[in-house]
Design brief:
Blueprint: H1 2-12, E1 17-18, H2 19-26, H3 30-47, E2 51-56, E3 59-64, H4 66-83, H5 86-98, E4 101-102, H6 103-110, H7 115-124, E5 127-132, E6 140-144, H8 146-151, H9 157-169, H10 186-189
Antiparallel strand pairs: 1-3, 2-3, 4-6, 5-6
Helix pairs in contact: 1-3, 5-7
Organism: Candidatus Caldatribacterium californiense
InterPro entries: ScpB_csome_segregation, WH-like_DNA-bd_sf, WH_DNA-bd_sf
Keywords: Cell cycle, Cell division, Chromosome partition, Cytoplasm
């Protein structure tokens, strides 16, 4: 049965699975897979267990439901706060809010050099190089990865945009002061 195969694939995958990957594994077309995924998702919702099937961007993943995940999130938070330095966490926050962003932008926002923090984030797979800026010297541009969204339980860019608006409403700068995708700010203006 297609649902069982998809369930096994999602359970065994450490990362969200694309429809293309599901097509290759199952030999079925996208329409059949989407139908089976919706039925599988509804089945998990009906049984109200700890696991759920969720869309992450254009991919699918098996996840722990939020109401059962509080303990796990706290454990992950503690693990990451031990694994990532304060500087790395600051850098990660800047990259997530201002992406794509250059190291110069990050350094200016933090007021210190971010070389080591960026190395750590690149090594952990939470941040990636996504291109080069048009600024003099053509510095690398950084953005968060799919692993970032998985780790922090975010569905994608849309949730980051909501966070930017919320930060603006809470007095951490206006939504206009927190650039959207592709408008990192400082280095390009210099």
């Amino acid at each position: 049965m297609l649902q069982n195969l998809l369930e096994g694939l999602l359970f065994s995958s450490p990362h969200p699975v694309s429809l293309g990957e599901m097509e290759r594994v199952t030999g079925r077309n996208e329409e059949e897979i989407l139908h089976a995924l919706q039925e599988l998702k509804q089945s998990y919702e009906a049984r109200e267990g700890a696991l759920a099937i969720r869309r992450v961007g254009k991919k699918w993943q098996m996840v722990v439901r939020p109401q059962y995940g509080a303990l796990l999130r706290e454990h992950l938070r503690r693990s990451f706060s031990r694994t990532l330095s304060r500087g790395a966490l600051e850098t990660l926050a800047i990259v997530s809010l201002y992406q794509p962003v250059t190291k110069v932008d990050i350094d200016l926002k933090r007021g210190t050099d971010s070389t080591q923090a960026l190395r750590t984030l690149l090594r952990t797979g939470l941040v990636t190089v996504c291109g080069r800026s048009s600024a003099p010297g053509r510095p690398f541009l950084y953005r968060v990865t799919e692993k970032f969204f998985q780790t922090f339980g975010l569905e994608g860019e849309e949730e980051l945009e909501k966070l930017k608006r919320l930060l603006g409403e809470k007095g951490y700068g206006t939504a206009q002061q927190i650039p959207g995708p592709g408008r990192s700010g400082l280095a390009e203006k210099m």
